[in-house]
Amino acid sequence: MAASLISFQCVMLLCMAMFMVLGHGSSLSRNEHLEMKKLLQSLNKPAVKSIKYANGDIFDCIDIYKQPAFDHPLMKNYTIPKIPTSPPRGRINNAYASFNGSSVVRLQDGGCPDGTVPIRRVQMEDIRRAGSISNFGKKHGIHGPSSGGSINGLPGNHHWTKIDTKAGQFYGTQASFNVWKPEVRSLDHSSSSKLWVVAADQSELNTIEAGWTVDGRLYGDLEPRFFIYWTSDGYRNTGCFNTLCSGFVSVHKQVPIGAAISPVSKEGGDQFTVVISVWKDQREWWLYINDEVVGFWPQQFFNHLNTKADKLMWGGEVSSPNDGDLPPMGSGLNPTEHNFYAYKRACYTLVTFSSSMAITSSRSALLTSINLMTGRSASH
C-alpha cells in the first residue's frame, strides 16, 4: 500500500510539473509568442538534411559556417582552424577507462553530409519550459563553482560535489564518466556528472563545462544526454548550454551536442562510460568525446580562458525547485562496502590533466580514481 501511494504521488508530481509548464505556455502574451517565434527562427537554420529520432529529437544538418556560433559579430570573417586529429598524449587509456564498454553519442545512417554539422532543433515547448526567453538555455543566479555544497543565489536547492586542483596554469583535462540514468522525478529537477575548466572568479568567472546530464527543463525528458556549457561573466549574461547561443563551434558531422547517451550503467551490471576531453591549442579550447573531436570554443569569447585555465574541477551537480528534495547524483547509490561492490554501483570518474601547453609525449599528467558523493549532497 505504501509503495503504491509513493508511486501515485510521484506520478501526480510529474503531471503537476507538466501542467504548470503547459499552463505557462498557454498564458503567453502575443508579444511573448512573437519573440519566441523570432528566437526559433534565429536558432533553427535552414537544413540540408534532418534526422528524426523516436524520442522526438530532430537534428538538422546545417552548413558548418551557418551554425549559431557564426551569428556573433566576433565571428565575422572567422575561418575554422585546422582540426586536430586526436587529443594530446598522456591521456586516459580507453581500454582502462571503459571497463565494459563505451556509451554512444553518434547519429544514425552516417550522420550529416560533408560540410555540415548536426544541430538539435529547438521547439517552442523548449522555450516555454524555461519560463522566459531570458532564461532559455542558461544558468541563473550562480556565483561560480569555487567551493562545494550549495550554490548561493540560485532559487531552490542547487548543490554540487567535486574535487579540484589548486590554483595553477592548466591547458587541458580529460575525464572518463560512467553514465547512469538517475531517478530524477520531474522535469524541474536535474542531475549531471561533468568537468569544469575555470579561470578567474565571481563576476569575472570564465568556465567551460562538459559531461552528461538528466535535465527535464532543458530537454523535455529524463534521459541522460551529452551537454556543454560556457560563460565569461559568472553566468550573468554570456554563455549557454550546447549551441543555444553563439559560442561553441561544432565540426563533427556525426556527433551532436545535446543527444541522448546509450547504453547506460546498471547497478551490479555492465558499466558504460564516455571519455570527455577539453584541451587548449595555441588559440582554441577543443572538445573531444571518446577520442573524437566534436568542436571548439573560440578564444575571442573569453577574457581569462583565452590564455589558460586557473583551475580544473570534476564532479556532480544536482538541482530541484523551491527547496524541494534533491534528485540523486550519479548512480544515487553509496559505495558503503568493499571496492568491487562500489565499482558497479557508485558513479566514478577517471581524470587526467596537463600543466603543459606543448602537445607532446612529455606533458605532465596525473591519473586518479574518484568516487563521487551520491544521493543528497549537503552543504559543506
Please tell me about this protein's structure.
The protein is of the alpha+beta class and 380 residues long. The chain has 6 helices and 18 strands. The strands form 3 sheets. Strands 3, 7, 12, 13, 14, 15, 17 and 18 form an 8-stranded mixed beta sheet that branches. Strands 5-6-16-8-9-10-11 form a 7-stranded antiparallel beta sheet. The longest helix has 25 residues, at 2-26. The chain is globular, with a radius of gyration of 20 Å. The two termini are 37 Å apart.
Summarize the structure.
Helix content is 16%, strand content 28%.
Tags for this entry?
about 375 residues, alpha+beta, eight-stranded mixed β-sheet, seven-stranded antiparallel β-sheet, 6 helices, globular, disordered N terminus, disordered C terminus, Neprosin PEP catalytic domain-containing protein, Neprosin
